[in-house]
UniProtKB/TrEMBL annotation:
One of its GO terms (biological process) is cell adhesion. Its main location: other. It is found in: Cell envelope. It comes from the Bacteria. Transmembrane segments: none annotated. Keywords: Metal-binding, Signal, Transport. The keyword Metal-binding applies. Residues 1-26 form the signal peptide. This is Metal ABC transporter substrate-binding protein. GO terms for cellular component: cell envelope. Residues 121-158 have a biased composition (Basic and acidic residues).
């Protein structure tokens, strides 16, 4: 046979395996992520071997998300589910039940040592079934970390459940490397025929993440450490703050849903004046009302929009994770540069 002459037995075997794998996995793997940032990471690593979709949409607030029937349908059709973990997706158990999804699940933060909620903010409640608590609940605790003594929250009665860990680990490009490894591993396991493809793309993506991380560190050298303090809407930036020595002072807690008390706001305003904080940022997933009030009363300028828990719409430049991290850095440097 001509074939025998042209190909070694090994090549024929490899071609046979390839053909077999193509017939098994001709359709892209259907991967559903809980929110848009993970969805982008899945697309980066999965390329054209995956059909990626997200449950919480772009500019959506995952903390207050209420799944719709169409989300159950999306999840029901998934072959792989990717979530953040660290109790970020409080709405997920109900949705999983509604969808009857029993397939594999990747927890993107697996292996990360999470930051504790500084100040023990208690607003990470499962708001999906906890609304009745809200009016009676007095958020009488401080959100200003530097100002916080034990006394400030020791008398605070916790009336509802919340996570004790900060889920916003994607705000650190260093920790995003762990996300990439976990997602890649999950894709490889769910679709072994394309394992090498995923590994190659994950490696390339990890490289680009590293380059952005390095360039942010270099660029931030233009801002003296003592100037690196800003006010944000909700407490989503602790990981970024830790990575780059920036002090983020949140108006509300780790969830975007808490209503700060008048006392909380007064304390933030005092702190902003005392520390001469230059900039206060709006977030894409949180109402700007409070930010504008604090800006008015302190003379701090509204520095722009930081992307915290969701990407922006397609074509906005903040429609990818790397684009979002780049944009957040640009906004911060612009506002803080002396
Ligand atoms: Zn958040």
């Amino acid at each position: 046979m001509k074939m025998r002459d042209l190909y070694s037995g090994r090549t024929v075997l490899a071609l046979g395996l390839l053909a077999a794998s193509l017939s098994v996995q001709a359709e892209p793997l259907r991967v559903v992520s809980s929110f848009s940032i993970l969805n982008d990471m899945v697309k980066e690593i999965g390329g054209d071997k995956v059909m990626a979709s997200t449950i919480v949409p772009v500019n959506g607030d995952a903390h207050s998300f209420e799944p719709r029937p169409s989300d159950a349908k999306t999840l029901a059709s998934a072959q792989l589910l990717v979530i953040n973990g660290l109790e970020f997706e409080t709405w997920l158990p109900r949705l999983q039940q509604a969808a009857g999804y029993k397939g594999p699940q990747i927890v993107a933060t697996e292996g990360i040592t999470p930051l504790a909620f500084e100040g023990g903010q208690d607003d990470h409640a499962d708001h999906s079934h906890d609304h009745d608590h809200e009016p009676a609940h007095d958020h009488d605790h401080q959100h200003v970390r530097a100002e916080e003594g034990e006394q400030a929250h020791s008398d605070h009665a916790h009336s509802h459940q919340h996570g004790s860990q900060d889920p916003h680990a994607w705000q650190s490009l260093g920790l995003a490397q762990i996300y990439v490894r976990n997602i890649s591993k999950g894709l490889e396991q769910a679709d072994p025929a394309n394992a090498e493809y995923y590994q190659r793309r994950a490696k390339d993506y990890a490289q680009r993440i590293q380059e952005l991380d390095d360039s942010i560190k270099t660029r931030l050298q233009a801002v003296p450490v003592e100037k690196r303090k800003v006010i944000t809407s909700h407490d989503a930036f602790s990981y970024m703050g830790k990575a780059y020595d920036i002090r983020f002072i949140p108006l509300v807690g780790v969830s975007s849903q808490a209503e700060p008390s008048a006392r909380d706001i007064a304390q933030i305003i005092q702190l902003a004046r005392r520390e001469q904080i230059q900039a206060i940022f709006v977030e894409n997933t949180v109402s700007a009302k409070l930010v504008e009030q604090v800006a008015r009363e302190t003379g701090a300028k509204v520095g722009g929009t930081l992307y915290s828990d969701a990407l922006g719409v397609a074509g906005s430049g903040v429609d990818t994770y790397l684009g979002m991290m780049r944009s957040n850095t640009d906004q911060l440097i612009k506002a803080l540069q002396p």
